[in-house]
TrEMBL record:
UniProt name for this protein: Dihydrolipoyl dehydrogenase
Catalytic activity entry: N(6)-[(R)-dihydrolipoyl]-L-lysyl-[protein] + NAD(+) = N(6)-[(R)-lipoyl]-L-lysyl-[protein] + NADH + H(+)
Binding site for FAD: K59, G123, D322, M328, L329, A330, H331
The keyword Nucleotide-binding is assigned to this record: yes
Native species: Ectothiorhodospira mobilis
Cellular localisation: Cytoplasm
EC main group: oxidoreductase
GO BP annotation list: 2-oxoglutarate metabolic process
Disulfide cross-links: C50-C55
Alphabetized InterPro entries for the sequence: Class-I_Pyr_Nuc-Dis_Oxidored, FAD/NAD-bd_sf, FAD/NAD-binding_dom, FAD/NAD-linked_Rdtase_dimer_sf, Lipoamide_DH, Pyr_nuc-diS_OxRdtase, Pyr_nucl-diS_OxRdtase_dimer, Pyr_OxRdtase_I_AS
Highest taxon of the lineage: Bacteria
Family: Belongs to the class-I pyridine nucleotide-disulfide oxidoreductase family.
SUPFAM superfamilies membership: FAD/NAD(P)-binding domain, FAD/NAD-linked reductases, dimerisation (C-terminal) domain
């Protein structure tokens, strides 16, 4: 068979790869995208981790479980009585699956509309301009292109002390598809996945115990935010145990469930759980990605070395998304995909890594962008802080939703905004205006002099900016 040639070949169709492929095609480049993802029924699917087993299904269950908890516990406060609220887990899961199906098919439609050629199977970098493709039926082919974009994504880290068995000890994918609400759910790792999935199952009725190795909760967050959220999650009933070290997890085949042994400052403990979720981080999926005489530099974890423009050590080969440095976030990967596509087309696009928003989709949500207070202290940067609590917001009170605050950090001399940290049920939406402000180089005075609609939760951002300047209007 004659070698098929393209202008660009993308390996991986997660949010980094599929966005790169679409943007390349929009710019007139003849583009192919290879992806090997198949669902449990063997159906090929685009969208990678994010659409199939990540962002989308987790947010579907977060939304459904939040509605269930609201209907069962909180609506009464508003004078709304709805007796006999019942959970139908099967229906909840079916809705999640329909949503995933709909969105992954949407990418298929976008590929078609933009004329991206989709190759279903495994891709390997063979040379500077060559990619090996193995279809699911084993047929092999070599494709060529002057530009190759690697977007293989990431996979869950497995712990030697608690290996996955797919039934009792599972990763995040398993925890998105339980067929029953576990009575007691153990979670190793109180990070982003642990908190989101722990919240889902707690709302649906599980008793959730989280075993976290570090002594500081959410060590990557602003310390004030981490401290406040630990209190909030504790009150909700998430039993978060810090400074723990899991030494073994034994699946009990007869009685069912898992016995976990862990150590902390007080000695050794044993806990029995119906299910155990291990979510202790993710690692790049770069095993078997290269098969040929190319020097693609990676570190010991398999993270591909790239420069600020996502160029690898191989000329004409780029890498984007979870497989390269930086936060493992869908929107970060997508923006890298756009940057690489546009640079291939001769544009001078860059990604501003200082303004990537982060969100933990718990209730309340935790969101941030830019620098933390501890970062600024460490680097000796003089700063002013402005904090506004939602308890002083009229809209938050009307919503019966006053937990949390907005915290802004601005340079003490120039007043330029350096960071924003929000705990609120709508933090994921509120953080966008802060990201725009920081991206545009705004000062806290710029925010303070902007007119915000009343009554909105956004006014808390306005008031925090006023507080940074020393004269908030609605707190003493
Ligand atoms: P991936 O999405 O992992 O896609 C990589 C694709 O490449 C896969 O389809 C894989 O099959 C394919 N592939 C790999 N190697 C090859 C090969 N050699 N040949 C062919 N195909 C290959 N991020 C957020 O920003 N917001 C969220 O709310 C969020 N929630 C999450 C919830 C969970 C439970 C998880 C697990 C992750 C979540 N993430 C979230 C992280 C997000 O999913 C990832 O950052 C994102 O998917 C990374 O995109 P990517 O394109 O780099 O890789
Ligand atoms: P994470 O890095 O957020 O959290 C892992 C936690 O496990 C950390 O607190 C770590 O200290 C702890 N840990 C590590 N080893 C441990 C051990 N042996 N015992 C106990 N605790 C241990 O990683 P997580 O939650 O697995 O998520 C992976 C990535 O996926 C995230 O970093 C994030 O980039 C992405 N993600 C993003 C989401 C979002 O944007 N809302 C949602 C879910 C995932």
């Amino acid at each position: 068979m004659a070698e098929q040639s393209f202008d660009v070949i993308v390996i991986g169709a997660g949010p980094a790869g599929y966005v790169a492929a679409i943007r390349c095609a929009q710019l007139g480049l003849k583009t192919a995208c290879i992806d090997r993802w198949r669902d449990d029924a063997g159906k090929e699917r685009l969208g990678g981790t994010c659409l199939n087993v990540g962002c989308i299904p987790s947010k579907a269950l977060l939304e459904s479980s939040e509605l269930y908890e609201h209907a069962s516990k909180h609506l009464q406060t508003h004078g709304v009585r709805c007796g006999g609220v019942e959970l139908d887990l099967g229906d909840m899961m079916a809705r999640k699956d329909r949503l995933v199906n709909h969105l992954t098919q949407g990418i298929q439609g976008l590929f078609k509309a933009n004329q991206v050629t989709w190759f279903q199977g495994h891709g390997q970098l063979k040379g500077e301009r060559q990619v090996g493709f193995t279809a699911h039926d084993g047929q092999e082919e070599t494709l060529s292109a002057p530009h190759i974009i690697l977007a293989p994504g990431s996979a869950p880290v497995e712990l030697g002390s608690a290996p996955f068995d797919g039934e009792s000890i599972v990763d995040s994918t398993g925890a998105l598809a339980f067929d029953q609400v576990p009575g007691r759910l153990g979670i190793i790792g109180a990070g982003v996945i642990g908190l989101e999935l722990g919240s889902v199952w707690r709302r649906l009725g599980s008793e959730v115990v989280m075993l976290e190795a570090q002594d500081r909760f959410l060590s990557f967050c602003d310390e004030q935010v981490a401290g406040e959220s630990l209190k909030i999650f504790g009150k909700q009933g998430l039993d978060i145990r810090l400074s723990t070290r899991v030494t073994s997890a034994r699946v009990d085949r007869d009685a069912g469930g898992v016995t976990v042994v862990y150590e902390d400052g007080e000695g050794e403990h044993e806990e029995h759980f119906d299910r155990l979720v291990v979510c202790v981080g993710r690692r790049p999926c770069t095993d078997g990605l290269v098969n040929g005489p190319v020097e693609l530099a990676m570190d010991e974890r398999g993270t591909i070395h790239v420069d600020e423009y996502c160029q690898t050590t191989v000329p004409g080969v780029y890498a984007v998304g979870d497989a390269v440095r930086g936060p493992m976030l869908a929107h970060k990967g997508s923006e890298e995909g756009v940057m690489v596509a546009e640079r291939i087309a001769g544009m001078e696009t860059t990604v501003n890594y200082d303004t990537i928003p982060n969100v933990i989709y718990t209730l309340p949500e935790i969101a941030w962008v830019g620098r933390t207070e501890q970062d600024l202290k460490k680097q000796g940067i003089p700063y002013a802080t402005g904090v506004f609590p939602f308890v002083a917001s009229g809209r938050a009170r009307a919503m019966e939703d006053t937990t949390g605050f907005v915290k802004l950090l601005a340079h003490a001399e120039t007043d330029r905004l350096l960071g924003a940290h929000i705990i609120s049920s709508r933090a994921s939406e509120l953080i966008a205006e802060c990201a725009i402000a920081i991206e545009f180089g705004a000062s806290s005075e710029d925010l303070a002099r902007t007119v915000f609609a009343h009554p909105t939760l956004s006014e808390a951002v306005h008031e925090a900016a006023l507080a940074t300047l020393g004269h908030p209007l609605h707190i003493p």
